[in-house]
Prior knowledge:
This is DUF983 domain-containing protein. The chain crosses the membrane at residues 69-89, 101-123. The protein is mostly helical. The protein has one domain. The chain contains three helices and no strands. Helix 1 (23-31) packs across helix 3 (97-129) and helix 2 (69-92) packs antiparallel against helix 3. The chain is elongated, with a radius of gyration of 20 Å. Residues 35, 37-38, 41, 54, 56-57, 59 line the site of zinc ion (ZN).
Amino acid sequence: MTTLSREPIVWPPQSAPSQQRNVWQAMWRGFRGRCPNCGEGRIFRAFLKTADSCDRCGQDFTGHRADDLPAYLVIVIVGHIVVPIALSIETHYAPPVELQLAIYLPFTLLASLLLLQPVKGAVVGLQWAFRMHGFDETNPDH
Ligand SMILES: [Zn+2]
């Protein structure tokens, strides 16, 4: 017979209502490039490189695990904008393919670059709000 050496992991972590974090506020702050905790400090120190910590409140950002999720989300968002427009224009007007590519490709590239940092910030804000990964101060693995 074996016994568990520690408490089972429960997700989401059980926390008192006073310790719960506002998910939408944290995601909006992250979307704007601000610290999900205080909303004032900067979350990024480069285009997609998060700062080690908030320069205002000291919130540690090194525990985030956004990984490839922001890129997947940007593909989904931009794809849901570009593809219906392209299909509709092709169906109704059928302009030359060269003209369509000259518009859609730069738009897709620009929209993707413009959305990547805000979406990554929102993902980090989401992880912070749910105390995921390195934002869980009760996790003994960190
Ligand atoms: Zn902060």
